[in-house]
Specification:
Strand content: 5-15%
Distance between the termini: 23 Å
Structural class: alpha/beta
Order of helices and strands: EHHEHHEHHEHEHHEHHEHEH
Largest sheet: 4 strands, parallel
Helix content: 40-55%
Number of helices: 13
Shape: globular
Number of strands: 8
């Protein structure tokens, strides 16, 4: 099966190991990986800031970049979801609406693709430790991926899982929200870190780079002995 990787900006610039783990994991599951170097930002930050028309050239670039793909898979639920928004943004456009719909239809979050398309629930991963899982807002509420991550994590050998209190609450990242309203964002992420501490887990797992950078940064500044891992890194552990 041929898979085209949508790496996302944050993974490309800040979490290269997550991209590497994603590729290695999918290859181990029998996928042939394609990485088009022409991919850029999906446009979500600018679009969510109200620059709709200014963002469309970037969206069109991404539609063209992934036009050849059979499946588009991303380690970010938030960015994968934004591809699903493209048909609504280009609604009524005689050229781009159908192209946007084609991209949306073949785009998946990483765990969603593994469970729903590949039909795999045990990837053969092994990791010792006690972990909790942060359910990111965009991935669960908008992309609708809720069960797949948990189905995969429960089959990781050696990993003891404990549920995160207030898991449905935002971590305070919210893209540009954390920049425009940093004081509110700080209080939200502090609450999230407190919830993580309450679990007494030594590993925090998540599936969105933005959330993990936000929570992980706060954990680091507070000097907490909690390891932060993307789910791709966990599932790629042997």
């Amino acid at each position: 099966m041929k898979v085209t990787l949508f790496a996302t900006c944050l993974v490309d610039m800040f979490q290269g190991d997550v991209g590497k783990a994603t590729v290695e994991l999918l290859e181990r599951l029998g996928c042939e990986i394609d990485f088009p170097e022409s991919q850029i930002c999906c446009g979500q930050p600018a679009y969510n800031s109200g620059y709709v028309e200014d963002t469309k050239p970037a969206m069109k670039k991404m539609i063209e970049t992934f036009e050849h793909a059979e499946y588009v898979v991303s380690p970010s639920g938030s960015c994968a979801y934004f591809f699903k928004e493209y048909p609504h943004i280009f609604k009524g456009d005689p050229v781009w609406e159908s192209k946007a719909q084609a991209l949306a239809d073949k785009t998946y979050g990483l765990t969603q693709f593994i469970v729903e398309v590949l039909g795999v629930k045990d990837v053969g991963a092994s990791l010792e430790g006690t972990a909790t899982y942060h359910t990111s807002c965009h991935m669960t509420r908008l992309l609708g991926v809720k069960e797949a991550p948990m189905e995969l994590l429960k089959n990781v050998k050696g990993l003891e899982f404990t549920e995160l209190p207030g898991k449905d609450k935002c971590c305070g990242f919210g893209g540009t929200f954390s920049v425009k309203m940093s004081h509110i964002s700080e209080q939200m992420v502090d609450e999230k870190v407190q919830c993580v501490e309450e679990t007494e887990a030594d590993i925090l797992i998540g599936a969105d780079a933005g959330c993990l950078i936000n929570i992980g940064g706060r954990i680091d500044r507070k000097g907490k002995p909690i390891r932060v891992m993307h789910i791709a890194e966990v599932l790629n552990s042997r």
